[in-house]
Amino acid sequence: RVIVLDFGGQYNQLIARRVRECNVYCEILPYTVSLDKIKELNPTGIIFTGGPNSVYDESSPHISKEIFELNIPILGICYGCQLMAYTLGGVVTPATDNSSCEYGKTMTNYNKDDVIFTNACEHGVSWMSHRDYISTVPDGFTVTATTAVCPVAAMSCPERKLYGVQFHPEVNHTENGKDMLRSFLYDVCGCKGEWQMDSFIDSTVAKLKEQIGDKGVVLGLSGGVDSSVAAALLSKAVGKQLTCVFVDQGLMRKDEGDFVEQTFTKLFDMNFVRINCQEEFLSKLKGVSEPEAKRKIIGTEFYNVFWNKIRENYGSGYFAQGTIYPDRIESGKGDAAKIKTHHNQVEVPQDITFEGIIEPLQDLFKDEVRVVGEKLGLPHELVWRQPFPGPGLGVRVIGEVTADKVKILQEADAILREEMDKCGYASQMSQFFAVLPGVKTVGVMGDSRTYDELVAIRAVTTDDFMTADWAKIPYDILGRVSSRIINEVEHVNRVVYDITSKPPGTVEWE
Length: 510
Ligand code: XMP
Prior knowledge:
Blueprint: E1 2-6, H1 12-21, E2 26-30, H2 35-41, E3 45-48, E4 74-77, H3 79-87, E5 91-93, E6 102-110, E7 123-130, E8 133-136, E9 142-146, E10 154-157, E11 162-165, H4 177-188, H5 197-212, E12 217-220, H6 225-238, E13 242-248, H7 256-267, E14 271-276, H8 278-285, H9 291-313, E15 318-320, H10 325-331, E16 356-358, H11 366-375, H12 380-383, H13 403-422, E17 431-435, E18 440-445, E19 448-461, E20 469-470, H14 475-488, E21 492-497
Bound molecules: xanthosine-5'-monophosphate (XMP).
Xanthosine-5'-monophosphate binds near residues 391 and 431.
C-alpha cells in the first residue's frame, strides 16, 4: 500500500483517487501519524500532499526528519515538496510580493531523464498554486523541472528515492500528471498495480464470511448507492443471514419503494424487510413548515421506526452500514458552519449491543463503490442513482408536507426524469429534480381561470456538491417538461426553472 500523508491541502482525496486509478491501494493518514505507525504499515511509498501557504507559518504542519531515513520512496507535492526541501536543508524563499506566485495553468519545462517525467513532454502545462518557492534544493538533489517564475518546479534525489513537485500532478489540468504519478508508483516504489475491484470483492466476501460466521447481520437499506452496494456484497457473503431493513416513509420518488423491494427480493438472496410508515411520518409532520424542524422530525421518526424494528427482531449479531471512505475522512474534520442538518450516519442506541459493526465499503471511494455495484449485478439505475437527501421529498415539498402535495411532486418529478432520460441529458447532470414551493398562481386553461400549484425544476452540475452551477438545459427540453407537467399533473398550472448557483443557493430548496 501507499500512504498519502495529509498536510491539509484541498486535493488530498483527489491524490488518493489518482493513486487508486493506477490500481495501487492507498490510504490517507494525517501528517501527525507516528513514525512507528508508518513503520508498522510498511508502505511501498509515501506521498506528501499540499497544504497551507508557508513552511515558515508557525501553525503550518511539519514533519520529523527521520521519515526521510526510512528508505521508503517519498513524493512531495506543492507544500509537501517545500516541506521536503526545507526539512532536508534546502532553502524555501517566502513570498514578499506577488512576483513568485503562480496560480493555475503554467508552462513547465521537464527533464525527461528524470524517472518521474519519462512519459511527460519536454514542455507542458502544469497546475500551480503557490506563493513561496524553493530557491535552493537540499544537498544531493537536482532540479528536474522549471517554469519562467519558479526555479525549482520539481526536484529529485534518486539515490534516496525522494522526489518533489511544486505543481499538482493529481489535477487534470496538469498534462501527463497521471503518468507522473504512475511513474512514481511503478518505477520508483515498484508497485505492480494489482488493486482491482474483482480482487476487492473476492477478498471482502471471504473476510465477511469469516467474521460473521453463522451469526446474523442487519443493514439499514435506503436504496441509495452505498447501502445498496453494501447489501449486495453482504448478500454474496452470507445470503439469508443478512436482513435488510428498508423504511419507506412515503417520501421517496414515484414507485421507488417498489423498485428497491423488487430489486433486492428478486436479484439477491437475503431477508428483506420493508416497513411502510407513510402515515406515521405525515402525521408527525402535520402543521410543521420550518425546514430544520421538518428535518429533525423526519430524522427522529426514522431513527425510532428503524431501531424499534431491529430491537424487536434483530438486536443481536452484527450491524452493517454503507459507510464509504470519504465519510470517514470527512468525519474527522472540524465543524464546518452548519447550513442545514444532513442525516446520513445512523447511531446505534445504547440498549442494543451488537457483536460488532461491519462497514464493507469503508475503504472505497464513490466511483469504486459503483464499480463494485455493477460487478455484483445491481441495476444501472441504482448504481448511478443521483444523491437523494435523507429526508427525501420532505425537503422538496416546501412548507407543510401533506400526502396530496407529495403525490403532485412525485408525478411532476417522474415526468422530469422520464424526459431527461429520453433525450440523453440525464447523465450530463449531477442532480435534477422537481420542487413544490407551495405557491399558488393564477392561470388560464381552456376558457377558465385556474389558481393552482407552481412546480420548480432544479438541475445542477458539480464535482463535489460544495459548489454547483445551474445546468444549462436546452429550452426545448425544458419546454417539453413544462407542458407535460402542466397537462398531466393535476393541480399544477405553472412551471419555473431555478437558475441559482451554489453559493448563494443550496442544491435543495430546504
Ligand atoms: P445542499 O442542499 O446542502 O445539498 O446544497 C448538497 C447535496 O446534499 C444532498 N442533501 C442531503 N443528503 N441527507 C443527505 O444524505 C440530507 O439531509 C441532505 N440534504 C441535502 C443534496 O441532495 C445535494 O446532493
